[in-house]
């Protein structure tokens, strides 16, 4: 769940929201830019046409009446957006509301944009851009007409503000809507994640939840459920075949052992034949032990047994294991230490925990040389109780730690040691049944096997080697 929360904005819905938001902003900017450019071009054309008409009217006015006409033209502009001026050939003002001719304005009778504004006595210079034109008359005087672009600039500002409001009024509801849309898939994924927890622990009878929406997640869940059903069927078939083989072969092997035992009793005086029969009995016992171990693993893989779990005192189970194996360790001159710190009870099966710990301690004693050291230690870590079995034996190579929990696997260090190779398979099945975790690592001078007696986190596979750093 924490993974989902930390990666919420990496979801497909969140990415679509961001993509659509960026596309809307980009196209909004382009649209507003086009609208503003077309509007400005149109209004500039209107102003230029108006200036040209007035210039033509004033230019054909009688020279004697022109100064009075210019003054009248400037006085009938109450808002001060029109500038009209008449200047002599030396540039001195003769009439109008303009002080001087701007240096950047050409006397060609064409409209020019003056970003520096028009110098007038009634306003601060350079405050408003203007479009102006100046024409040298036949009398040598210069006629100047200009109009402020405040209307165009104001319209552009209104357009830009409208864009900002439009983006904000679209993005904010979009983010809120996206958040609400994202919550649905995120909740569904959390449900799927919780549903996969027992499947990851080996319970193939579980299925992913499917809603009535019929969306992509439901299609994916349906595909996974179909796959799980097929895997469960194949696993049950394989398990059934193995169990049937174990059952069917165990009966004739038991009869064969009984006959060999009777033959052994009759051949006591014939030593060579009796020794041969003894060897056959040993081999048959080894095969029967393997079949019993296979059936035991199959029994433990039936997860319905977990319904009978109860509160178990780990310290008591550890003391029983220590007491049970103490004589064996003493016969091998191995100091067998028990270190148990106060532990809370765990929900488990006491007999199965004893069996798992007995297997682990038995292996530690068996593979530790005579005079070596074995230690059974229980403590609390950040999440719950943990049990460490430490020994001074040869240890388990790192490349074999994932394989030793498989059935009948025997590493290079154990091929010459008696055993069936299913002890750790039984331990692994018990660990998976409880939802605990098993970790195989190195101790200071040997091997370390740690049993974490609490449910494992998402992403950790119970019953196999975990990537945890655990001090010995």
TrEMBL record:
Annotated signal peptide: none
> Where mainly found?
membrane
> Pfam families, alphabetically?
HAMP, HATPase_c
Q: Which residues form the HAMP domain?
A: 186-236
List the GO terms this entry assigns under cellular component, sorted alphabetically: plasma membrane
Q: Which UniProt keywords apply?
A: Kinase, Membrane, Phosphoprotein, Transferase, Transmembrane, Transmembrane helix, Two-component regulatory system
Domain named Histidine kinase is located at 244-451
Q: Where are the transmembrane segments?
A: 16-37, 162-181
Reaction(s) catalyzed by this protein?
ATP + protein L-histidine = ADP + protein N-phospho-L-histidine
Q: Where in the cell is it found?
A: Membrane
Q: What is its EC number?
A: 2.7.13.3
The GO terms this record gives for MF are:
phosphorelay sensor kinase activity
Q: Which InterPro entries match?
A: HAMP_dom, HATPase_C_sf, HATPase_dom, His_kinase_dom, HisK_dim/P_sf, Sig_transdc_His_kin-like_C, TCS_sensor_his_kinase
**Protein name (database record):** histidine kinase
Q: Which organism is it from?
A: Dyella tabacisoli
């Amino acid at each position: 769940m924490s993974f989902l929360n930390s990666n919420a904005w990496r979801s497909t819905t969140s990415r679509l929201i961001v993509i659509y938001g960026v596309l809307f902003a980009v196209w909004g900017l382009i649209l507003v830019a086009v609208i503003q450019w077309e509007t400005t071009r149109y209004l500039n054309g209107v102003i230029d046409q108006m200036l040209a008409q007035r210039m033509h009217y004033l230019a054909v006015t009688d020279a004697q009446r022109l100064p009075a006409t210019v003054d009248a033209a400037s006085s009938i502009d109450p808002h001060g957006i029109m500038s009209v001026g008449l200047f002599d050939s030396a540039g001195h003002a003769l009439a109008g509301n303009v002080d001087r001719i701007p240096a950047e304005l050409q006397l060609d009778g064409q409209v020019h944009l003056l970003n520096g504004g028009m110098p007038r006595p009634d306003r601060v210079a350079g405050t408003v851009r203007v479009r102006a034109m100046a024409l040298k008359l036949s009398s040598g005087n210069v006629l100047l007409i200009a109009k402020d672009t405040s209307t165009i600039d104001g319209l552009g500002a209104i357009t830009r503000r409208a864009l900002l409001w439009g983006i904000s009024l679209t993005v904010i509801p979009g983010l809120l809507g996206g958040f609400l849309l994202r919550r649905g898939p995120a909740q569904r994924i959390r449900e799927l994640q919780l549903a996969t927890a027992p499947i990851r622990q080996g319970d193939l009878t579980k299925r992913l939840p499917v809603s009535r929406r019929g969306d992509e997640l439901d299609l994916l869940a349906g595909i996974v459920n179909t796959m799980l059903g097929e895997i469960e069927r194949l696993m049950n078939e394989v398990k059934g075949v193995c169990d049937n083989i174990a059952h069917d072969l165990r009966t004739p092997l038991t009869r064969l052992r009984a006959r060999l035992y009777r033959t052994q009793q009759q051949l006591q005086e014939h030593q060579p034949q009796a020794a041969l029969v003894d060897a056959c009995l040993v081999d048959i016992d080894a095969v029967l032990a393997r079949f019993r171990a296979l059936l035991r693993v199959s029994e433990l893989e039936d997860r319905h047994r977990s319904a009978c779990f109860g509160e178990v005192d780990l310290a008591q189970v550890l003391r029983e294991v220590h007491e049970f194996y103490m004589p064996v360790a003493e016969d091998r001159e191995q100091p067998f230490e028990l270190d148990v710190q106060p532990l809370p009870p765990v929900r488990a099966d006491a007999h199965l925990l004893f069996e798992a710990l007995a297997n682990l301690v038995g292996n530690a004693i068996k593979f530790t040389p005579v005079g070596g050291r074995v230690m059974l230690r229980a403590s609390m870590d950040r999440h719950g109780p943990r049990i460490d079995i430490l020994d001074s034996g040869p240890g388990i190579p790192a490349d074999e730690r994932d394989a030793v929990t498989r059935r009948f696997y025997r590493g290079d260090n154990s091929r010459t040691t008696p055993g069936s190779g299913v002890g750790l398979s039984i331990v692994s099945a018990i660990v998976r049944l409880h939802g605990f975790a098993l970790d195989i690592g190195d101790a200071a001078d040997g091997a370390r096997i740690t049993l974490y007696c609490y449910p494992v986190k998402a992403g950790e596979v119970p019953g196999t080697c975990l990537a945890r750093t655990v001090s010995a």
